[in-house]
Amino acid sequence: MSISVHNLTKYYGEQKAVNDISFEVQSGEIVAFIGPNGAGKSTTMKIITGYIADFEGTVQVNGLDVRTQALDVKKIIGYLPEHNPLYLEMYVREYLEFMLRAYEIPPPFTLTIDAVIEQTGLQQEQHKKIGALSKGYRQRVGLAAVLIHNPKVLILDEPTTGLDPNQIIEIRNLIAEVGKERTILLSTHIMQEVEAICNRVIIINNGSIVANDHAAGIKQSAAKPPLLVEFLEATSLADLQTISGAGVVMHISDNRWLIQAAGNDDIRKHIFNFAVQHSLTVLSMHEQEKTLEEVFQQLTK
Ligand code: ADP
Predict the structure, then answer these.
(1) I want to staple 260 with a disulfide (CB 3.0 to 4.6 A). Which of 112, 128, 248, 252 is the partner?
(2) Please, are residues 204 and 45 in contact by the beta-carbon 8 Å criterion?
(3) Which long-range contacts (CB under 8 A, 24 or more apart) does 234-240 make?
(4) By residue range, what is the domain housing residue 232?
(5) What is the CATH number of the domain that holds 184?
(6) Which of 5, 10, 12, 202 to mutate to test the pocket of ligand 1 (most atoms within 8 A of CB)?
(7) This prediction's pTM
(8) Residue 290 in contact with residue 222, Cβ under 8 Å?
């Protein structure tokens, strides 16, 4: 079960919301789709799920064309839209039965509903009205509804937004669990989530893809991280600025300094040469790795 997006462009009137993007999500992958508000994430997700048919390019889910085979695509896809729209007056079990009927799945429903309720941890809440549930449990109901027809592809648009930290971890674990045998495209603003559960990250900005790699690869490909260097002896900013290839130099504390390369060259050997020439002892030197958050800011500002 895969997702394939080729040269996708989407205009709303005059405004270009998605600008010629292409990417693939392979069977079994959990891919994070991240970007600032307005970047084009929801629009892309609505197109993949067959809810927007007016676009340029080719989008396929498991080889099915989302424009001409939208109904077939909806049968194999589970889509949790942003803000998780639910019928608050319905009871949890009633709502799940309603969803099964909407998918035209023949009764009996009991076993299917029981299984999904157990999978999403809704046993205690299954006889309550959805409107009476906390936000975390409503999100579980949304996920239960997404899973009810056992889709192999999940499109989850900000599934943890608005939840408290405990609820975020619970929903994240649930997604990781159901993702073991499914293909997932997930949008989020939480970088720990990306690192915790996603195999790959696609960053979109102003409708264009600016990065598509494993989290570690994205962090490495961003400009060289600064070096945190500790000397045994005192030295000065003016002296350190003479190191060949050094850019910004910052004093951290005592004899600890942060040295950023001006270009993409590895300046560690120049730092050692400098230390020898100035009779300094290098106690430690390591790259101050960027967080995914910092790389995200760098790529999307
Ligand atoms: P994201 O999900 O990354 O926040 P969206 O896909 O919702 O981004 O929006 C991308 C751009 O398209 C934004 O500038 C947004 O204002 C615009 N947009 C989204 N939906 C519509 C719509 N129905 N009509 C007009 N413009 C829209």
Answers:
(1) 248
(2) no
(3) 235/278, 235/280, 239/274, 239/278, 240/274
(4) 223-289
(5) 3.40.50.300
(6) 12
(7) 0.83
(8) yes
